[in-house]
Amino acid sequence: MKRRHNLPVKLLVACSLTLAFAAAAGAAEADAANPTQDPMAFARGARAWADNCVRCHNNRDPRELRDDQWRAVMVHMRLRAGLTGQDTRDILKFLQESNGNTAMTTALPVVSPAASAAPDAVAAATPETLYNQTCVACHGANGKGALPGVPDLTSDKGPLARMSDEDLIRSTMDGMQTPGSAMAMPAKGGNPALSDEDAARLVRYLRERFRGE
Amino acid sequence: MRTIYASPLALALGIVLGTTIPSSAVAASPDAESGTTSNTDAQSATESPEITELRAQIAELNRRLEQLAQQTTAARDSARVAGEKADQVAQISADGYNAFANTRSTYHLAGYGFVDFVAPQNGDATFSAASFNPIFHAQYDEKIFFEGELEVEVLEGGETEVNLEYATIGWLFSDYAALVAGRFLSPLGYFRQNLHPAWINRFASAPVGFDHDGAAPSADLGVQIRGGWTTAAIGTFNYAAYVANGPELEAEEDVLEGVISDGTARNEDGNLVWGGRIGWLPVPTLEIGLSFADGRTSVTEVEGEEIAGEPDRDYRFYGGDFAWRPLPALELRGEFARQSAGSNAFSLAPDSAVWRAWYAQAAYRVAGTPWELVGRYGDFESVNEMMSTRQWGAGIDYWLTSSTVIKAAYEFNDPDLAESEIKDRFLLQIAHGF
C-alpha cells in the first residue's frame, strides 16, 4: 500500500546541482571579495546590523559579547536570518570594533583581519561622511532614529536641543545610555578612530544638519 | 649609583660652603680649603665653633643624601619589578584572550530562559512554566558550524523534562548557501523558526495554531540548503530548501486529530517530505515570505499508543508571512499556515484533515521608554474542534535590557466548542535571552 514518490529524488538532484553551482561560485568569490583591506566594511556592517537584527529581535549591544563570541553568534545568525557571507563579515567587523576590545581586535588577524584598514580612512573623513558611514545606522538619515529608543536629533526635546557642545562631545566619545533605549550608544559611536576633533566637527555638523543652527 | 648622586651634591655643598664660610676662617684653616678631614682633633682645636657646626651639618647632609640615594635605588628596583610583573600580567591576559579568539575553533553558549504565570478565567492562578534553553555553538574556521539547543523544563508534577530542540551541522560552502544537516527547526513559515523563543516573541504566548500540535510544523530531521543573496534592483532574498523525514499523524478513534511535527528519527511511510521557504525584502523594513512542502505521511499514533503498518497518504503545507516596520517603533507582522493530510480508505482514520491558522500582530515601542504595547489577533481551525478558536490578545512589555523582558497580557478566546478547555486568561512572563 505504500506508494513511493520520486519527488524527493528530483529534489536531491536539484540540490546537488545547486550545491555544485554554489560551491563553484563560492570558490570564485573567495578571491574577489576579500574584506581584509576593505575600509567600508565597518560602515556596511553598521547598516546591515541596524537593518537585519530587528527583523526578529531588539538590537543587542555590541558590548554584550567578546570578539570571539560574536564570531560564533554571527554564523548562527547568518544561518537563521539568511544573511550573505559578506553581510555576516561586515556585521562582525562592526560588532568587534564597537565592543571595547579594539586593541585586542587589531592584534588578532584571524578574528578581525580588517581592523586596521578603516581608521585612517575614517579619520580623514568629513563630518557628513562620518555620519553617513557610522551614525546613520542607529540615528537614521533623517536624524529621527532608525531603531526604537534612539533619540530624535531633530526634536526640541532631543539631545541637540538640550545638551551643550561639551556634553555632546563627551557623550560621543564616552558613549551614553538614553533612557528607554534598548542599547547604549557605544563609545565613539563604535568608531575607534574617532578623535575629539572629529567629535567636535561632528557636533557642529549635526546642529547644522538637523537643527539648522 | 650612590656615588653618582652623592658626589655632585657634596661638591655643590662644598662650593656653597666655600662661599659661605668667612674668608678669615678659611685662611686660618688650610685643611678646610682643601676639603680634607684629617687631623680632626687638631682642626677642632683651631677651628671656630661655627666651622665645626658647618662640618657637622655637611656630615649629616651626606648621611641623609646617602639614605635618599638608597631609597631611590630601592624605589627604582621596585618599579622595575612592578613593570615586569605588569608586562607578565598583560601577556597572560593577551594569551588568555588569544586562547579564545585567535584559534580555528570557537565555542559559545547562548540560549534563553523564561518563567510563566497564568491566571485563567474561572481557574487557579499558577506559575505554569519554567524553562531553560541552552544553545551550544561550535565553529571551526569560517566553514563548519555546529549548534544544538536543549529545552529543559519543569513539568506539572515537578519532574524535569529535557528535549532536543535542534542539533545541526552546517557547512558554509559559499557566501550565498550553506548545507545544514540534522534535526532543525522547520524552515516553513517564520514564527516557529525565528520568533518562538520567549525573549524574542513580543507576546507572552504563541499565536493560536503556531505552538506545538498546531498548523505550523515545529521541526524535522533531514538536510537543507539555506542562505541569501542581495540584488541592487529588487532587494534582498533569503531561502531554505529541505528534504526530511516529514511529519506523522495521530488519530483519536477513527478520526485524524493532530500532526506530530517535532522531527522524528524514523520514516514510517517510507517517503521523504520536501519543501522550503523564500523570503523577499524589497526594502529593509519589509519582508514577505512564502512556504511550501509536499510529501507523504501516515498515522503512527492512535489514542496515545504507537502503531505501525498504517498506509501512507498525501501531506502538504503552504503558508505566507510578512513583517513590516513602517516606523522604527512600530512592528507589524502576520502569518498564515495550512497543513493537510489526504484521505486513505484503508487507514484506521480514513478521512482527510486540515489544520489552518493565521495571526496578525502589532507591537509599538513607546518613544523614550522601555514600554511596548502589543496587540494580536489569531484564528486556528483544527480537525480537532476542541482546539479550534479565535483569539484576541492585548499585552504590555517592559524591557529591562535589550534581551530581558517582563510581559503582561490578556487573551480573549472564542473557541468553536463551548466545552473547549481554551478559556480567557491573564499571562505574566519574564524572559531573558543570552
Task: Summarize this structure as a short list of keywords or feature phrases.
heterodimer; A: 213 residues; mainly alpha; 10 helices; elongated; B: 434 residues; alpha+beta; 16-stranded antiparallel barrel; 6 helices; 19 strands
Strands across the major sheet of chain B, in which order? 1-2-3-4-5-6-7-10-11-13-14-15-16-17-18-19
Morphology call of chain A: elongated
Largest sheet, strands/sense/barrel of chain A: none
Distance from first to last alpha carbon of chain B:
58 Å
Q: CA-to-CA gap between the ends of chain A?
A: 80 Å
* Largest beta-sheet details of chain B: 16 strands, antiparallel, barrel
Order of helices and strands of chain A: HHHHHHHHHH
Q: Decide which structural class fits the backbone of chain A.
A: mainly alpha
Count of DSSP strands of chain A: 0
- SSE run of chain B: HHHHHEEEEEHEEEEEEEEEEEEEE
Helix content of chain B: 10-25%
β-strand percent of chain A reads: under 5%
Number of strands of chain B: 19
Q: How would you describe the oligomerization state of the chains in this entry?
A: heterodimer
Number of helices of chain B: 6
Calculate the mean pLDDT score of chain B and round it: 89
Question: Rg of chain B from C-alpha positions?
Answer: 41 Å
Q: Pair with the most extensive interface?
A: A-B, 67 and 78 residues
Mean pLDDT figure of chain A: 76
- Rg of chain A over CA atoms, rounded to whole Å, is 21 Å
Description:
The complex is a heterodimer of chains A (213) and B (434). Chain A is mostly helical. Chain A has helices at 7-32, 41-52, 67-81, 85-98, 102-106, 118-123, 127-139, 159-162, 165-174, 196-211. In chain A, α2 crosses α4 and α2 packs parallel to α7 (127-139). By secondary structure, chain B is of the alpha+beta class. Chain B has 6 helices and 19 strands. Chain B has helices spanning 2-20, 23-27, 30-34, 40-46, 49-101, 191-195, and strands at 105-120, 126-140, 144-154, 160-174, 177-185, 219-231, 235-244, 248-252, 255-260, 273-283, 286-302, 305-306, 312-327, 330-341, 353-365, 371-381, 389-401, 404-415, 425-433. A 16-stranded antiparallel beta barrel of chain B has the order 1-2-3-4-5-6-7-10-11-13-14-15-16-17-18-19. In chain B, α1 (2-20) packs antiparallel against α5. Chain B is elongated, with a radius of gyration of 41 Å. Mean pLDDT of chain B is 89; it is low at 1-6 and 19-37. Classes of the chains: A mainly alpha (213), B alpha+beta (434). Chains A and B meet through α1, α3 and α4 of A and α5, β1, β2, β4 and β5 of B.
